[in-house]
Amino acid sequence: MLKEQALYVLAQLEENGYEAFFVGGCVRDWLLKRPVHDIDICTNAQPCDIMRIFPDHIPTGLQHGTVSVKHDGAIFEVTTYRAEAAYSDHRRPDEVRFVSDLREDLARRDFTINAMAMDRHGRLSDPFSGQTDLLSGLVRTVGSAQERFTEDALRLLRAARFAAQLQFDLDSKTEQALADCADLLRHIAPERVRVELCKLIGSDYPWHGVAIINRAELLRVYPELDQLFKLAAPYMHRVRKLTSLAEKWALLLYASGATNEAALSLVALLRMSNRERDKIALLLHIVTEMRPSWDESESIGWEHALLRYGPETCVEANHLLQAIWWEQDEATDSHSQSVIDTYERLPVKSLKELAVTGKDLLTATDKTAGPWIAHTLQHLLEQVALYHKPNTPEWLLAEGRKEVERY
Ligand code: ATP
Ligand code: MG
Q: CCA-adding enzyme C-terminal domain location, by residue (predicted)?
């Protein structure tokens, strides 16, 4: 479907007298028969021509020659052929120059497998033998690896990430240059490092990508991350069993033996959002709370956790615990179902369901309002939910008075 809409865009450009090709990741993934999630198009039309031909557009990155073209509910990035001049900051070219030759455009791309174009009849332009590398399962830079990594150090991480997504090896010169140029990663914004590492950890072969990173000592400018990936390497096969990225990061942090504070400072280092950070912190906290402890009273059970953190978070925590304990043959879904069943069986699940309110407690105790109310209500909720005490005003008010005394 997506491809049909993109074919229309190519045809329109051609009808207006321009060249137009599918390019980059979509060509690679079609040839590999992998799912394609976005389609990029390159053309010798200038941005102003593209905008004229497609009135329904967004001028996404005109200075780089990119216009987003909308057609039939889909959106495609259409980019003018370009070459890139010197990179003085090891990340962005100092200037881009529009060119008229497709080959020049392909030559600025990072890896041979990403430097192929395909016309609308399926004919391939592959001046750097990307197809051969696809067949041999190799990530190889277009031209000198050392030069390409020095121009843009993000490519170092992209190499490991593509290797992890495709289960490819790096060709030997590319791998050597990865080790030689690793220090250049200090020029890359931590957010970008995070994006690539998240793609790598979320890929189908994360252990493969991490082995490449560790061999090259690629993360040496981030000593904490470098340690994390080395210590967590034996756990990398388990990462794939997990679903969310928060679970995956939490497993790595747990496996590396990081204390909760150390884990959080690592997460901050990568500029994760507060939401992501809180989720990872909560998962690590639950896992620590649920770890069987010598002192029974220090560890909590599922019912307790479900009441405190809710079923969704507990299902995630359950995945994480399974990965830690490596129950590899167990079906994850049946485990999740039993956590959900346990939740369903709780006689009450929230304060709203209690037969008394904070107001009732105030009246019954003659005390002035304060944090004791929330504390007492939570205590009562646990008594009813976990110890099956009666959910009646009489019992709850009597127990409430006792708890207030103890508070
Ligand atoms: P995916 O979208 O699946 O992550 P992709 O190959 O489409 O993979 P994008 O980041 O979307 O990757 O980039 C699109 C294309 O742009 C790439 O295939 C590559 O040709 C080129 N490209 C992207 N980033 C760089 C870079 N840092 N250096 C050189 N070329 C790049
Ligand atoms: Mg892409």
A: 241-398
